[in-house]
Amino acid sequence: MSKPAIVLAHGAWHTPEAFGLVTKRLEDAGYSVHGRKLPSVGNDNPPEDLSQDITAVQELVTEAIGDGNDVIVIPHSWAGIIVASALSGWGKKEREERGLKGGVVKFAYICAFMIPENVSLMDAIQHQVPHWWDFDGPYTIANDPNVFYNDLSREEQQKWMSKLETHAYATKKAKSTAAAWKEIPTWYLVCEDDNAIPVAAQEAMVDGAKAMGADVQAERIKASHSPFLSQPDVVANWVRRAAGEKL
């Protein structure tokens, strides 16, 4: 049986480079991995809503499906909102009902926002601007290495902070348009030492999704908001298990 294709969707301020260690491990294990920078990040003409990020994810998934592949989509943080908004109706079952081959067979959320439709990121955080956001016109900037990278060395923290880009503030106020995790089975990696989305918030989102009838399987690791940097072997093996491997 062929392995599913993998789509990686990065979080706010980040780029696909952050997934590099996990990407290599998955490719070495025989997976086709797809990713690209979301338009809400580092854009001189920042988007006003979610539509550009949604389109980017849909294009990635279309590429990954190809001539009929199964696909696992892995959103981190912010991208949980985008993936859920983008992929309602993109599940393999839903696509087959329309006479189409392949589709999304699973989500694998990595400490990602898992919110219902018609809810914005700002709604999800009760419109309380985090202390670690700075503002520059239409942009937000992340300013504290201990929020994302508290389990990395100081040198690694500075390295990855230097790679962060701006994130369009308007997109954080834009409402989600769907909750595809209601349709597609989801694995969720709860990160216990996350200083960006506290573990209690992650667990509340998982419990909320289950209460809405979603098929969610949660697993916990002792990691920061960036386990793909601090524990790439653990994350890659978790993805491989999500894909059906027995490890």
TrEMBL record:
Annotated keywords: Hydrolase
GO molecular function: hydrolase activity
InterPro entries per record: AB_hydrolase_1, AB_hydrolase_fold, Sec-Metab_Biosynth_Hydrolase
Top-rank lineage group of the source organism: Eukaryota
Domain AB hydrolase-1, chain residue ranges per copy: 6-237
PANTHER family to which the protein is assigned, alphabetical: AB HYDROLASE-1 DOMAIN-CONTAINING PROTEIN-RELATED (PTHR37017), ESTERASE_LIPASE_THIOESTERASE DOMAIN-CONTAINING PROTEIN (PTHR37017:SF11)
Protein name stated in the entry: Alpha/beta-hydrolase
Species this protein is from: Corynespora cassiicola Philippines
